[in-house]
Amino acid sequence: MRIAVFVLSFIWLVNGELLEADQDASVPEDWILVEGVEPLEEVELTFALKQQNVKQMEELLKLVSDPDSHQYGKHLSLEEVAALVQPSQLTEKVVRNWLQSHGVKNCHTVVTRDFLQCVMTVQVAEALLPGAKFHRYSRDSHTVLRSTSLYSIHKDVYQHLDFVGGVHRFPPKGKDISKGWEGARQSALGYHLGVTPSVIRSRYNLTEKDVGTATNNSQAVAQFLEQYYNPADLAEFMSLFAGGFTHMSAVERVVGTQGGGKAGIEASLDVEYIMSSGANISTWVFTNPGRHETQEPFLQWMLLLSNMSAVPWVHTISYGDDEDSLSDAYMNRINIEFMKAGLRGISMLFASGDSGAGCRHLTKERNTFRPSFPASSPYVTTVGGTSFKNPFKLTYEVTDYISGGGFSNVFAMPDYQGGAVQAYLKNVQPLPPQTYFNITGRAYPDLAALSDNYWVVTNRVPVPWVSGTSASTPVVGGMLSLINDQRFLKGLPSLGFINPRLYKLQGKGLYDVTEGCHLSCLDDKVEGKGFCASPSWDPVTGWGTPNYPALLKALMD
Description:
hydrolase; EC 3.4.14.9
């Protein structure tokens, strides 16, 4: 499926002032300038305050996620996380005094105190951020307030902030969110009967008894960019495709407000397959169309997680962007938010993307692969995609050529995966030229599932041939929710950040995918081929796809 783009404005020190590092303040072609903005109109900006004890938090996450550690599974509450990371009193004082000196008083924070969201007039915002000039832009029926000029921040404040959200970036358009990532595509194999919940459950050995029963279990999907699910679609989908097992036909809780209009195929896919894979488990949907025209929905979701003591144990998200389009400062701060979730025992699953290794054209003569974020984050579990070898039958799986994967250009390879990745680099030949990828970077995906030719019900119509890692991600998420369910019934903690344990299993409980390659740059050096699957871990399908009963057994201590 399409991978959504969320980019936050952030700041850096230049000649004693903070200038926005996201230098591209141009207006995308599909956005039209409607009008100027009245000085007394309101905007809402988000200020990310510098956190404390980040290194300590990283070390603690390793301990609670390592099955060989005596602290394994001893997760923290939100309040305990807050006590660890909340900004210093000086940081809070400097930022608040700066805001109040401009008359900004309508602010609210989160439990962890590391974000401030403030409502102010355009006039005040432009005084607070000298150089900013807000205008209203329109695309279809959607309007946003944005500044297309660079701004500065006082030098005494810069060291206390990571970024300011809600100033420059325009929401991407659904059908061209990322040029390299195809999104929902119609398969050339039109005769494929299609993947349904019964196919998923058969392939991964889920029986009719493999459904949720624990009362304290829950799972969630998050939807952005005007993507909404329709409760009637979900009920129709379950009626058509979920007859062989106990299931729920309604979402337990919607956090946020769903927008109007037609249901999005992305949101429909996410909800329908996490609820049929993780059957009979309470499911939440996080949604945020935005109260203000300056809000950024991905950031809103992150803030919600920092402000809710009780949230679902598994979250699956089918959105991301090319690493090179984001700042290191932004990605590093979002990584800290993922660490906070892991410390609380929350499993974060992200789709690996639908552009294979990707391709970035540096010059006319030079290309490189193009890793994606948050797929490349060391603190999330990234899910790739596979296809059936035989399109007519429940056969073994091979690589889906669109399955996103590769090596981060920003984040170093984490310790938990070093052995597996080095074995791949040593044993698989030939590899793509090393000028195309960072041999020392965080490698992904971590595991995979079927991502080709799904049936989805959207706007009350069954739709075939929906494909992408947006399909495989909720399928894996649902199965992890089922494992959590069994763990809770035995008094065990949630799986939490699963990667360190997953890599120690070395493929146990998973079907190894060893055939096929994914796509990459169409040039004379790699000729469209990225990395290839191999025995054990590989940067196309990770450790492979779930064999549910074996994976359950491996994760039940």
